């Protein structure tokens, strides 16, 4: 469903109400999962991580609150630059995923720790081509490693979580390649600028609250 960004408020409220009763989700609580058995070593300077897990509004809101994260940018990953626009991505024919680019200090928060938050509370990694009320490949669960070390950590962590059956369903998260292209200005810091938007209050505020409850030591 693409109602969240463009529809009038009355339509959004109705759609969110229907989705809340009809679509299963776990936005209200984190899933208890172990830390990665293998992580990337800390390095000097800032690093970037690119993660996709449904609507970028909520992903951005969660990771903006992680200690050691310097900035989070909403955007599109996995497709080409010329179709990296909301209008084009909404057609579900561009191969992009709504994603975020995280700039973080690896001496404060590791890549593996970011992935733990990603899998535990930022989204549901068992949903295929969708998250909660939103459906389509642009809402898929995908990791876009920026370095060989990140790829290694992501691969081994997915295997670890799968082998320990951390989730009741198979993990759908894919490891992909492709560039990241920032989204339009209206989508940046959306949750912070629109705290009472019905989509934010139903789906994203609960995730932020769940993150703070499950990972108090990571709250920045």
From TrEMBL:
SUPFAM superfamilies associated with the record: Peptide methionine sulfoxide reductase
Gene3D superfamilies reported for this sequence: Peptide methionine sulphoxide reductase MsrA
Domain Peptide methionine sulphoxide reductase MsrA, first and last residues per copy: 48-199
Catalytic reaction equation(s): [thioredoxin]-disulfide + L-methionine + H2O = L-methionine (S)-S-oxide + [thioredoxin]-dithiol; L-methionyl-[protein] + [thioredoxin]-disulfide + H2O = L-methionyl-(S)-S-oxide-[protein] + [thioredoxin]-dithiol
Transmembrane annotation, as ranges: none
4Fe-4S among keywords: no
Active site per the UniProt annotation: 55
Entry keyword annotation includes Metal-binding: no
Enzyme Commission number(s): 1.8.4.11
Gene Ontology molecular function, alphabetical: peptide-methionine (S)-S-oxide reductase activity
Record keywords, A-Z: Oxidoreductase, Signal
Record's signal peptide: 1-22
Homology family: Belongs to the MsrA Met sulfoxide reductase family.
Protein's job: Has an important function as a repair enzyme for proteins that have been inactivated by oxidation. Catalyzes the reversible oxidation-reduction of methionine sulfoxide in proteins to methionine.
Protein name: Peptide methionine sulfoxide reductase MsrA
Organism: Sphingomonas donggukensis
């Amino acid at each position: 469903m693409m109602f969240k960004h463009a529809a009038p408020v009355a339509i959004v409220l109705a759609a969110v109400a229907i989705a809340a009763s009809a679509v299963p989700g776990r936005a209200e609580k984190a899933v208890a999962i172990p830390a990665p058995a293998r992580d990337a070593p800390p390095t000097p300077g800032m690093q970037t991580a690119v993660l996709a897990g449904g609507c970028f509004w909520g992903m951005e809101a969660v990771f903006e609150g992680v200690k050691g994260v310097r900035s989070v940018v909403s955007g599109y990953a996995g497709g080409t630059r010329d179709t990296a626009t909301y209008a084009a991505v909404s057609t579900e024919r561009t191969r992009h995923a709504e994603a975020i680019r995280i700039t973080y200090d690896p001496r404060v928060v590791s890549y593996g720790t970011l992935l733990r938050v990603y899998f535990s509370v930022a989204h549901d990694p068992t949903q295929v081509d969708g998250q909660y009320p939103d459906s389509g490949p642009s809402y898929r669960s995908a990791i876009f490693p920026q370095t060989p070390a990140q790829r290694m950590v992501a691969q081994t962590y997915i295997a670890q979580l799968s082998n320990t059956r951390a989730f009741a369903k198979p993990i759908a998260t894919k490891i992909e390649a492709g560039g990241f292209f920032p989204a339009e200005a209206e989508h940046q810091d959306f949750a912070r600028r629109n705290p009472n938007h019905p989509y934010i209050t139903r789906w994203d505020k609960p995730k932020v609250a769940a993150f703070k409850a499950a990972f108090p030591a990571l709250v920045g």
